[in-house]
Amino acid sequence: MNNKEIIKCQFSKRKKELINKIQELLNIQQVKLISYFDDKDSFFYELGQKNGLYLNISYLGRGPFKENELTEVFDHGNYDHLIWISKEISECEEIDLVWTYSHELQHLIHALEDPNISIISDYIWKVWGKMDYTKHWLELPNELDCEKTAKKITEIIFDKQICKNYIEKKFGLQFKAKLDYLKNVISNNIYEELKKIIIENKFIYLKFENEISKEYNINIDIAEFIN
Ligand SMILES: [Zn+2]
C-alpha cells in the first residue's frame, strides 16, 4: 500500500506541494504511512498542546487516538505509521507546516532505522511526564535530531536567514542556544544516547516500569534494553 495524505483542514495547493517536496528531500519511501492534516487541534485528543505527532502504529498501537474518524482510517487501511499534524499548524504559515512536518518525518526515519528508538524514547518520555521533566524534551536525542532535520529542511525550502529569523521569533534565543549547545554534546547515535539516559538513572526507569505498563496497557522490559 502506498503512503497517503488525508487533508481535513483548509490547505492551499502550495502546502500540498510543500508536503511532497519535504518527502522528496527526506527520501521517504512507500512504507504504509498516513499523513493526517487534521481539522482538530491537540486538545480534542487530550494531547495537551501538540503541533504534530509521529506514531509507530505497528509497534505502539493507536496511542492517544481513540475511536473517531482518524482511527477509522487505521481500520480501513493497513497502515504502519501515522503522522498527525494539528489544525493549528496545518492552517498556519507555510514555514510552520514545513518545520513540523519535517520534524515528524524524521521520527518516521528513526523508526524505520530501528523500531526500538520509538519504543525506548516513548518510554523515557512517559517517565519524564511522571517526573515533571518534560520541559527538557530537546535533550531527548531523537527529538534533538528531529529539530535538526526541521531546521535543515526549512533552510533548504526557504533560506538560512528566513529560517534563523523564524527560530528566534517562534522559539526564542534561548531555544536557539540550547539547540546549538546540545548538537555538540549529544552524538548522532540515537539508540546509544537513549540507552545512556536510562543507564545513568537506571533505578528511576526500572521503578516506573510496572506503573507505566499498567497505565498504557503495554509490555515494557527496560532491563532488556540496557543489558
Ligand atoms: Zn518530536
SSE order: EHEEHHEHHHHHHHHH
Main sheet summary = 4 strands, mixed
Number of H- or I-type helical stretches: 12
What is the rounded distance between the termini?
A: 37 Å
| Beta-strand proportion | 5-15%
Extended strand count: 4
Total domains, how many? 1
Shape: globular
Average pLDDT level: 91
Structure ligands: zinc ion
Helix fraction?
55-70%
Calculate Rg over CA atoms. Answer: 17 Å
- Helix-and-strand structural type: alpha/beta
- Across the major sheet, the strand order is 1-2-4-3
Poorly predicted residue ranges: none
Care to give the gist of this entry?
By secondary structure, this protein is an alpha/beta fold. The chain has twelve helices and four strands, in the order βαββααβααααααααα. The protein is 60% helix and 8% strand.
Provide structural commentary.
The chain is of the alpha/beta class and 227 residues long. Helices cover 60% and strands 8% of the residues. It has helices at 13-25, 57-60, 69-76, 87-90, 94-113, 115-130, 141-157, 160-170, 173-185, 190-200, 202-216, 222-226, and strands spanning 4-7, 33-37, 52-56, 81-85. It has a four-stranded mixed beta sheet. Helix 1 links the parallel strand 1 (4-7) and strand 2. It is globular and about 50 Å long. The mean pLDDT is 91. Bound molecules: zinc ion. Zinc ion is lined by residues 103, 107, 143, 146. Residues 103, 107, 143, 146 line the site of zinc ion (ZN).
